[in-house]
Amino acid sequence: MSALAAQNLIHSEAQDIDDCWNRIGIYGDKSCPLLEQHIHCRNCAVYSSAATRLLDRYSFEQEHQELNAPQAHEEKVATCSLVIFRLGDEWLGLATRCLDEVAQMQSIHSLPHQRSRALRGVANVRGTLVPCLSLVELLGLDPSVPGATSLRIMPRMLIVAAHGGAVVLPVDEVDGIHNIAEHELKAASSSGEHASAKYTQGVLQWKTRSLRLLDEEQLLSAITRSLT
To answer: Is the pTM of this model over 0.70?
Structure first.
């Protein structure tokens, strides 16, 4: 319906309402034969019906204005949620869809005759023993490189949903979970900076850091291989 048609409809509706309360009612000459019975026009069915029609008219006008009001065009940017953490002096990002939990560091119990260099042992997660793997070993990082030192920095465990079940990945620090624009991730993936880095899909400049984006599928596959 056009704006002119809507205005005409509203005007016509207003003209059709008989405001008898202003002519012969309590606000007029009080000659209405029903006034003695109802005492006040607001107690009369005619008054109530007119009020309902007026409210409907105002509601229609409000809806019409809202529908025809210029809408603010907000650009919606697609994002990807990453858990950002540190190993040594390197910052990494992993898609949170494969993350179950970020937990406080627990004791890691070594296993006899471990077949995988990446397998550090098992950790107790809510009463269940969960395999614990070294991301430093999986990613081929230098374990001798020191990281940041601060009393406020506390190591954490990433509990990841791997293909065979939950796996614990100890990290030196967790910055938090952040939404990164997908177009930035795609640009980082196509930059070629990650060509020699294991299980990495790109390197992104994030805030003041160089952030290594982990390829979750490759990493989860490597975790599975380390446990078999």
So the answer is: no
